[in-house]
Amino acid sequence: MFCHWLTIRRLCFKKLQLQARALSGADAINALRPFYFAVHPDFFGQHPREREINENSLKRLNGYLENLQKPGFRSFKPTRLTFYVREREQSPSSVQEPFGAAGFRAVSFTLHTRDLLSTVLDILNSCSLSTDHVQSLNGSVNTQSKQETKRMFHRPIKWDKTYYSFTGFKDPEEELEQAQRMETTLRWQRSWGIAHRCSQLHSLSRLAHQSPEVPKNAKGQTVIFTDRSGMNATGYVMLGTMDVHHHWTKIFERLPSYSTLQKKVLFLEERISELLGGIQITYVEELQPMLTIEEYYSILDNFYDQVHNKRLPFHPNSLRGLQMILGSDRYAPSLHELGHFIIPVMCDLVTLQWFIMDKTQQAREKLKRKEESILLEKKLIKAVTKKFCLQQLYKEPSVSSAQMIHSCSNLLEESLPYLQGMHLCISHFFSVLQDGDLCIPWNWKN
């Protein structure tokens, strides 16, 4: 019976503790607004010593508040803080702590509470600030505590960037972006089967175990398994699937020097763009042959020498929003159906000028249609996936957006229950991949 009584006491204590912690982090920040306003370092610009003390104390306070919100965090150490509080209208109850001639006073207190509500009240009371708004907030929270404990639904709050700079809290979106930039992305140039991909990953893993320091240069990079090793024009690290570890090791060791070459490529693209009315110089994998970054740099360098020596009379920014790709296998300029100007490196500059001026409006219309097609394609892929309960629906890189739209539109008109749970690939022929993915041509017929 004594054990039963202890169990009841423990459950009651947990329930009371849950209600005490019902004050959210956002509520705590709102309740502490008068305090933040009274101690914010920006108001102590003429008093560097007091400003520094407030900055350091705010950092420690924010760390304490963050720990209170961590689930299961129990090891709290008493935290002694000192703040300089700005002068406000004094009331008879606040005369026990006189203000200095500079208009602020020093306040010291020790935090040892284990919930947000008690901590907020201690801070405000220590600084002789009103707690009425906190009491009313706590009352409204407690009235909803039963409902909240039943559904436990927490909608994320999206704060303005100034909130994080003001409070000192870490911006979760910024932390996520930084973490993603440091991640290494793995890609494949072709739709190889699972066995083939596992073999390539096993080879890369074996290299990482044999020489742990070598692959670290690829941190934050995109690594693509393809037919040759090096770095491509897009800046992806290429690992040739037929190459041995020695070749891969050399590529990883050369990555710092590739970074320098990437900067030179960006510089040439920007300079050519300035000389050609702001048109964007780009490299499109789907429309151009696979080029190493050295080959792409050579193409850019040759073309830049031509347009730099004979400046074309394009008005600055008159071609902004348009895109141009450089090719070495053509002799006449052309306009791709997606709206890209395809310009040969050795193109006659007078011909180039007149061609771009003549096709500008047409190019803008095609680019607009391309954007609309991409949106429609995504919408149709989602609809087909949902209708047939597909595990995955994708297309081969050689299948255009227009072809994918045509294929998906036709699929939506059919009743194909046997596709449920399958991986469907839109290609140019019928086949079944090693992994069981079903390939159908984009222009299939029932």
From TrEMBL:
InterPro entries: DUF4460, DUF4461, TCAIM. The lineage of its organism: Eukaryota, Metazoa, Chordata, Craniata, Vertebrata. PANTHER family: T-CELL ACTIVATION INHIBITOR, MITOCHONDRIAL. Pfam families: DUF4460, DUF4461. One of its GO terms (cellular component) is mitochondrion. This is T-cell activation inhibitor, mitochondrial isoform X3. It comes from the Eukaryota. Residues 185-445 form the DUF4461 domain. Residues 20-129 form the DUF4460 domain.
